[in-house]
Amino acid sequence: VVVDQVGAPGSSYDQFMAALPDSQCRYAVYDYAYSNADTGQINNKLVFLHWAPLGSSIKSKMMYASTKDFLKGYLEGVGAELQGDTQEEITEQEVAQRVGAAMTRK
């Protein structure tokens, strides 16, 4: 695994999405800030994204899918996971729902 890009602290979700290539698979991790409904405190959760856009090759999609769990095993603190092939599937609202669902399971 080779790091392709690192976003600046405080980067927006739109900036994160803009960095995803149109025709190449990627793994991505986003530090998502959310407000705790109970305390009103701002917290962060790491969100793991498996990006396999429609324009990427079948071989690339298969390679990324088969190594995803191996890579995730080395990451600590992932609070939610998403997989998408279009940006409409991985909206910020979807991230918020996944983080919220992960929080209620704990």
UniProtKB/TrEMBL annotation:
Question: Which one GO biological process term can you cite for this protein?
Answer: actin filament depolymerization
InterPro entries listed in its UniProt record: ADF-H, ADF-H/Gelsolin-like_dom_sf, ADF/Cofilin
Claim: Lipid metabolism is one of the keywords in the record:
no
Q: Which SMART domains match?
A: ADF
* The protein, known as: ADF-H domain-containing protein
Q: What's a Pfam family this protein contains?
A: Cofilin_ADF
A GO molecular function for this record?
actin binding
The answer to whether UniProt assigns keyword Cell cycle to this entry is no
Q: Which GO terms describe its cellular component?
A: actin cytoskeleton
The record places domain ADF-H at 1-100
Keywords, A to Z, come to:
Actin-binding
Task: Enumerate the CDD domains for this protein.
Answer: ADF_cofilin_like (cd11286)
In which domain of life is the source organism classified?
Eukaryota
Q: Which family does it belong to?
A: Belongs to the actin-binding proteins ADF family.
